[in-house]
Amino acid sequence: MVPAFDYTYRPPASPGLQQIHARVRDADLLRQLPEVQAIDGLFALPRRVHYVAAECGEFGAFYRPVEAEVVLCYETLRTLYERGQAHQRALGLPDGHPFRYVRANVRFMLLHETGHALVQLLDLPVTGRQEDAVDQLAAILMLRFASLEETPAEVIGNLRLAANWMLSRSTGAYNLDAYADEHALGEQRYFNLQCLVYGTDPERFAGMVEAGDLTAARARVCPRETRQASRAWLRLLLPHLAPGKEVYLDEARRFLDQRD
């Protein structure tokens, strides 16, 4: 049993990606993601999970089951930065916003793919669409394992930047392939994530409904959805805690004992 993760930055062949590779390698980006570090060694995995930054030939992040690799494409970092710049210009945000946009979305994407890794390696049961389930897990991990230096408002802000990216990729025009895809439509993923954010504190986020980020009808059930998703993932993952990580059991059991 090897519970640790490892991290690799593969040199790209394309000249246009060389600078991105150098920057993420020198910053050790993959190792600096707080939620990934928080769960490194938390579960008794049957094999090591490899986090890899690589050239892919297209935008994306994905999990390779045979190699147990969570892959982040350099092309993704470039596209996210460009979207962050557009978001900054549209809203008049500070100069550092594009980097924050990249980091927030990279965290969510890699946690989403980590969810696929945990489902496969721990043989976790998932009823329904696995893509929706690991979206939930990514959001829960970002809410639970953010950096100690981040405020709750910053954590929620990161999740909302991830939701923004989901919506930004929507065209509103779908064919049969889009409806049949394993992923929900971009708009659905956006509102599902907004619902998880709202469900953490309905009073604090009441303005989301007024702003049109969530419908009133969906908002009414979001607190229950958030609790159900959190409880479901706790029940799935607690039996797989690594030796020495029992400190999490008491807190988790108190949460599971709560009643609606």
TrEMBL record:
InterPro entries given in the database record: DUF4344
Domain of life (superkingdom): Bacteria
The protein, known as: DUF4344 domain-containing metallopeptidase
Native source species: Luteimonas composti
